[in-house]
Amino acid sequence: MEKAKTLFDVIGPVMVGPSSSHTAGAVRIGYLAGKIFGEKPDKVTFRLYNSFAKTGRGHGTDKGLLGGVLGYDVDNEKIKTAYEEAEKRSIAFYFEFRDDYTRHPNSVDIILENTNIGKMEINGISVGAGEVAITKINGYKFNINGDYDTLILIYKDKPGMIYRVTALLQGQNINIASMHCDRKAKGKQASMGICVDGAIPDYIINELSKIEEVYLIRNIEVLKK
Amino acid sequence: MTDLKNFADILEIANNKGKRIYEICQILESENTEKPVSDIRNRVKNIIAAMKSAINDGLKSEEKSTSGMCGDDCAKLVYMYKTGKSLFSTLQQKILKYALATVEQNARMGKIAACPTAGSCGIVPSVIIAVSEEIDIDEEREADALITAGLIGKIVSNKLALAGAVAGCQSECGVAAAMAAAAVVELYEGTNEQIINAAALTLKNIMGLVCDPVAGLVEIPCVKRNAFLAIYALVGAELALAGVKSIIPADEIVDAMKQVGEMMSPKLKESSEAGLATTPTGLKITSELEEKWNNQE
Description:
The complex is a heterodimer of chains A (225) and B (297). In chain A, 28% of the residues lie in helices and 35% in strands. With 225 residues, chain A is of the alpha+beta class. Chain A folds into 2 domains: 7-138, CATH 3.30.1330.90; 149-220, ACT domain (Alpha-Beta Plaits). With 297 residues, chain B is mainly alpha-helical. Chain B has a single domain (7-296), classed as 2-methylcitrate dehydratase PrpD (Orthogonal Bundle). Helices cover 65% and strands 1% of the residues of chain B. Chains A and B meet through strand 1, helix 1 and helix 2 of A and helix 2, helix 3, helix 5, strand 1 and helix 7 of B. Strand 1 of chain A pairs antiparallel with strand 1 (111-113) of chain B.
């Protein structure tokens, strides 16, 4: 790991082995992707790159990613039998292994699908010591690492949207720790990722869902670490 | 009290306040995380419980890892010790068994506590738990020892990333051994200086240790290295308890490790492009595994 922030960065995490970056990190990326998709997928495709592709099968990266999508934490001993569990839940899963050195050494694209939502592509990286980041959702840039409760929005790009969302948070006395916005083109769709101190109450989610032209709202809770 | 960046600071503050290093560490952790010391100690005890479970599960298993390269070496020791044959005292026998039990458990996708990393997860628990069994120590003292170990790792990580890919194995199994050595001195109630000296002496002698895993997996040489470095931690502790000092101060040793880590070729930092990974046997294993996995696709 890079510089330890707490004692528990050095002792722990309690996790299923063998690798913090290739197993525990994979579980966390899968877990976040599953929460961002937000429903049971019928089909999941994992596209592993570089070191994930080369050494992933020996490190159980495949089982970790799938186990994460199934909702497992890094210390869940069922990670080892994630394939069987996914079959039991009727989730079809596929793995592809690729080289692309323009990508981070430990990257994965996770494509989740079901009939209600359709298809969602989530990109993640494992940066070491079990720390991860979700870097894109459906092509929009994000930086979600599970250290904070995070509000994810995809909406129509128009003036005042950021104000409306942040005003709502302010109204509930919620402090924003960091914020990340992106858009594909002016007037088209845009995205917002907001990390907050503390929890995001259901009230906020209900109010946000009343705003027209918000296409996706997710409240991703802080990861258990 | 602000967060302490180096060994000299921690020693000065602990000695000025007349406290042991783990006491300073838990106060700091409490201040930084805004949680009571009792919460921190409970979390440490939960980690110790997980370490003990990993040892118990590992001692009972001979299951091979996914690659098939390891998983049954701990059982060989258990078997030999049953016959009464050994070069070692019961303490050292336990350390060896517990280190292999833990790290084999890791390789077979069992549950372990990373300490500081998953690949070095056998060193600190094997040493703390074997010593505590041998000298009959309670859970509170085990927690004191693990907090001491954690502080050593945390201070090293201020300068040196604890990752084979950044600084080689010196920063993983090497740092784990220094953490374990310091923990043993705490268990034997050595002085604060002796705790830091145990870590310093240990770190000096693993400088430059490379990370060259066969097929990129946490197995060869990682599994057996955990056993070696767990015993090696005892040397650091024993010397420090006898009053042997590191002439080079601990903080300067960490600076030197960082320098060495930066000078080390990337080929020797977890990329499996040199060392054991590219020996004829290492390459043969790598290509056999690649073939096996490609056939599974």
